[in-house]
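User: Can you predict the 3D structure of Single-stranded DNA-binding protein? Sequence below.
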Amino acid sequence: MRFIGYMNKAHLIGTLEGPIAFSHAVFGQRFYTVTIVTKRKSGAKDYIPLTISEKVKTEMEQMTRVDVVGTVRCYNIQKNEKSHMGMAVLVQNCMSAKEETADVNDVCLFGSIYKEPKFKERQTRQLTQFPLSVPRDSKHPDVIPCMAWNQNAALVAQLPVNTQVKVNGRIQSRLIKRKSETTYEVSVNNLEVYDTQVSA
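Assistant: Sure. Here are the predicted structure tokens for Single-stranded DNA-binding protein:
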């Protein structure tokens, strides 16, 4: 399939946890961070950081459960003279969600494979980890860690760097106990391969 244009969309419905805290300012605009908790069908929970503007903060302060749409952003976090990858959803739209509304954790990305995929075979399943480069409007890319399973794992493991792919999945959080830190990645449910070169 041919190049369709870069894509980065996240849709989350869940429960806010913890206080809204100041994060940073860009050209005088203040941004804040808060965590949304989404529950999987298995009952496991994902704790996903949100980055919100002053306007969204004002709206969100009145909410407990939220329905948000935004984009996945990645950045380096410095801790104890070491760095690790952080992830957050930059919220563009926010509305209140009813208590009975089911949790949602959907991500759709279109980008190019940034580094050689790493294939692993375990007793019960196969998995492949790969970073996906998705440019922002400013052309600055977010390099988003992704994990594919079984058939998708076997497929993406064979793809060369710069291959363009579209992935659908969810953001998952994992606590690395030995490092006492949380890591984030997109767990891929569906993967489509496009051309390896961008059409002019």
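The mean pLDDT is 90. The helical segments are 54-60, 150-157.
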